[in-house]
Amino acid sequence: MAYKTKSREKLLEYFETVDDKPFSVGDIQEYLKKQNVDINVVTIYRNLDRMVQDGQLMQHKSSDSKAVMYSLTKEHDCHNHLHLKCKSCGRMIHLECDLMDTIREHLMEEHGFSLECEGSIIMGLCADCRTKLIPV
Length: 136
Description:
By secondary structure, the protein is of the alpha+beta class. It has five helices and five strands. It has helices spanning about 5-20, 25-35, 40-55, 100-110, 125-135; strands at about 55-60, 70, 80-85, 90-95, 120-125. Strand 1 (about 55-60) and strand 2 form a beta hairpin.
């Protein structure tokens, strides 16, 4: 159970602004600075780690494990599906459809591979950005 601290309240305020876009600790610090709120970076990391453990946030690491991004899990069970991230606007789309079952079955039957979706991201362009970049 999380304590209701001022730091946690400010983090929750920030999360209301991000919608389905992934964010970094730097993004949080920038937001807090604009709000004239001083929260130690260690406190931010501690809260984020706790929220990842509680399933409120998903942690995404780049392939070189240097960049760490977070996203809200909301009502989603992010451990059981892939994520689509728009390279243009940063929107995160949860791939929660029957296709996931097909992908899992194919990977297991054809490749003997068990899919673990935690932190998974497929990069591309969302419908809105694709329309803006490639006019019809």
